[in-house]
Amino acid sequence: MSDIKIKEHIVEVIKACETAFVSTINLDNFPETRALDNVLNRKLDNVLNRRIDDRLEIYFLGDSDSPKVEQFKKNSNASLYYYVAGSWKNMILFGKLELVTDKSLKDKLWLDDFLQYYKNGKDDERYGIFKFTPTIYKYYPYEAGNLTCSPEIGSI
Questions:
Q1: Mean of pLDDT values over 42-54
Q2: Could you report the per-residue pLDDT of 58-113, keeping only the tens digit for each?
Q3: The pTM is what?
Q4: Is the distance from CB of 148 to CB of 140 less than 8 angstroms?
Q5: Distance of alpha carbon 24 from its chain centroid, rounded?
Q6: CATH at residue 44
Q7: How far is 23 from 31, CA to CA, in rounded Å?
Q8: Based on the structure, what is the number of domains in the chain?
Q9: Are 155 and 136 in contact (CB under 8 A)?
Q10: Hey, CA dihedral for 7, 10, 16, 20, is it positive or negative?
Q11: Is residue 18 a contact partner of residue 38, using CB atoms and an 8 Å limit?
Q12: Which of 13, 28, 103, 118 is the most buried (most CB within 10 A)?
């Protein structure tokens, strides 16, 4: 599969998922996995619909004072797992996780739905955006009636 087709597949799976599972290394050096709402990647077409040959960046809403922030400040290695319910489409991405500090980007990614979490809006000091930059992908190709046990693995 070409690099562009792989990125298109990755974006298709991301957009189809309501939830992503992120794993970080906690402060005791154990993997820790939690579910994250995939709202930014489903609702904001401009986040994922940039030119497909651009570097893929995936954004999530989260509290800037969340314990995971300390975890990825210590070790930014992380993975994201996506699974499309009712299908065999799934994917794991490996890369780096960081807290976005660029106010203009945070403003651009703001959705009014977030007011339920951040009563002071975009200026709430707890309002945080996490950026995941994948470097490696792994998925099992699936076509109707044909699931392979050999994963596709490569660099992004």
A1: 52
A2: 888 889 999 889 999 999 999 999 988 887 788 999 999 999 999 998 998 888 88
A3: 0.85
A4: yes
A5: 12
A6: 2.30.110.10
A7: 6
A8: 1
A9: yes
A10: negative
A11: yes
A12: 13
Task: Please calculate the CA angle 115-116-118 and round it to the nearest 5 degrees.
Answer: 55
SS3 39: helix
SS3 77: strand
Name 100's bridge partners.
Answer: none
Cβ burial of 56 (10 Å; 0-12, 13-18, 19+) is buried
- What mean pLDDT is predicted for residues 120-146? 86
Structure tokens at 25: 């290394």
**C-alpha span between 20 and 18 (Å, rounded):** 7
**How far, in Å, are 14, 41, 56 from residue 59 at the CA level?**
11, 7, 10
| Domain that includes residue 115, residue range | 3-155
Q: Which two tokens stand for residue 87?
A: 């299908």
* Phi-psi domain of 121 (left: phi exceeds 0; alpha: psi -120 through 50; beta: other): left
Q: Angle at CA 91, nearest 5°, toward 17 and 135?
A: 115
Contact 17, 51 (CB under 8 A): no
Q: Phi then psi for 66, rounded to 5 degrees?
A: -65, 145
Task: Give the Å distances, CA to CA, from 131 to 7, 29, 128, 136, 150.
Answer: 17, 21, 10, 15, 29
